[in-house]
Amino acid sequence: MRIGELAELAGVTIRTIRYYHQARVLPEPPRRSNGYRDYTVDHLVAVLRINQLTSSGLSLAQAGAVAADSASATTDEALDEVDRALAARIAALTEQRERLARARAGHHVGLSRVAAALSLTSTDVPTAILLAHLYKDHPQIDLLADALLEPKLRSALVSTQERFDAIDETSTDSELEELTLWVRSLLTEFTGDLPPLTEEQSQLILNLVERDLNDRQKELVRRQE
After folding, report:
1. What are the HTH merR-type domain coordinates in residue numbering (predicted)?
2. What pLDDT, on a 0 to 100 scale, did the predictor assign at position 71?
3. 62, 163: one domain
């Protein structure tokens, strides 16, 4: 049979057959006197096996080797290797699904658990993402996330955020000082075990925090430095 017939019977394209030849996973048949290659049913079976093996997770090179000699020890090793790789992928995908489920349940899709804990409003999200990244390797950050997600503290933080949002040019110095002391006490209690950020990191955070604030809010933020 010619290459077009082989491709049609195998359910692939002629380009695929030629690619298999180039990859040396499918032997090329000799040419006949008219210049055309003459494929046999063995080539058809080989193509079908290669397709089945690649669909099972083998690389094209592994599939070609297995199709060429399915009874060798090398074949068993290749299959074992693929099985281990598939098991690892399944485990990784399972973990991803679990993270996604937790994110959906906590209404923080697209955020890590720590970033979700650090954000109270949509405007907090960029800052929370950056802070979670800067502290991602610190063992205390998960404990901080646990504390910030505790309902009673969460309620207090939301109340504090509302007080902060209400600050404008009419806010008195005493109001700012009272809120400054309250925020400072919270920061000391819950971030005291975290190492200080570098000057460059602090400036990045400050740039994000101050981006949408009025002057009086910026003044309060800078009092925390």
Report:
1. 1-69
2. 54
3. no
For the chain, how far is it from start to end, CA to CA, in angstroms? Answer: 80
Distances (CA, A) of 9 to 2, 16, 40, 48, 147: 11, 13, 12, 9, 63
Do 202 and 132 share a domain, yes or no?
yes
CA distances to 63, 92, 95 from 88, in Å? 20, 6, 11
Residues 97 and 144: their CA atoms lie apart, in Å, by: 24
Q: Are residues 178 and 160 in contact, defined by beta-carbon separation less than 8 angstroms? A: no
For the beta carbon of residue 68, count every other beta carbon within 10 angstroms: 15
Residue-range definition of the domain harbouring residue 145: 113-223
**101 inside domain:** no
Per residue in 108-159, pLDDT (tens digit) is 666 788 888 888 887 888 888 898 888 888 878 888 888 888 888 888 888 8
Give the residue-averaged pLDDT of 23-29: 91
**Pair 120, 213 in one domain:** yes
pLDDT at 21: 94
- Looking at residue 34, its pLDDT comes to 81
